[in-house]
Every structure is written in C-alpha cells, then in structure tokens.
Amino acid sequence: MPLVAPISAAAGDSADTASATAPVVVWLRNELRLCDNPLLQRGLQLAKGNLQLVVCLDPREFQATTAFGSPKVGELRKRFVEECLCDLRRRVAERGSRLLVQQKAPEEVLPALVSEGSTVLVTAQVCSEDIAGAAQ
C-alpha cells in the first residue's frame, strides 16, 4: 500500500522515471510529515515500488554550538524531533513501509543505500546563518 496516493506521471514522461530495480531514496530532513509532503509525493511517483525513506540525525547539527556557546539544538528541540520521528515511523509502518533513522552524517549513510541508477530526493535547507556565511 503506498504511503500517499502517488501523483500520476504525464504520458511520455518515461525519461523522468526510475528503473524498476533501482531504489529511490527520499532523504527527509525537516519535512517530517506524510500528508502534504511534495518530496515524498515525487518519490512515490518515481519509485515503482522500491522506495526508501531515510532520516540522518547529523551529529554536527545536534552537537553544534552557537557563536555565544549555547547549544544550537536544545533539549526541547531534540525531544520534539524524537517525538516527530516516533510518530512518522509509526505512520509509515501502518502503511506497510519503514523509516530508516540513523544518527550519522548523511555522507556516511546515503552511499550505502544507493546503487547505480538510484535516485536520491532531498530538499535544500537554507537558514540565515548559511546566508550570512556565504556573504562573508
């Protein structure tokens, strides 16, 4: 049973669909919901039954500190993320699939999940700190 009703591909859209054997990996970062997730919708459209949902809890983000020395991700935020992931894992399991959650950097996790012909879907994340760092 699909996680969400897949979007139908347009006729003649075969160049935009993944091979039946190559996995489609959907790397979920902050978009931890199912019902209105365009990234997941696209993954379902491309997957042809071979869809892997993955979340990487990157230690660099969860152990980082701000310029003032305080934790960048506080205890309340960590608890919120844990609760969201528990709910997401349960909802994904109810639909006959599974969510892979790893407490590692994505460059350690993702290469093990992909093979030749795989598709990895991810959204860009930009925050004010990133913009300020790029401007310097």
UniProtKB/TrEMBL annotation:
InterPro entries documented for this protein: Crypto/Photolyase_N_sf, Cryptochrome/DNA_photolyase_1, DNA_photolyase_N, Rossmann-like_a/b/a_fold
Domain Photolyase/cryptochrome alpha/beta positions: 22-136
PANTHER family to which the protein is assigned, alphabetical: CRYPTOCHROME (PTHR11455), CRYPTOCHROME DASH (PTHR11455:SF22)
Protein name: Photolyase/cryptochrome alpha/beta domain-containing protein
Organism: Durusdinium trenchii
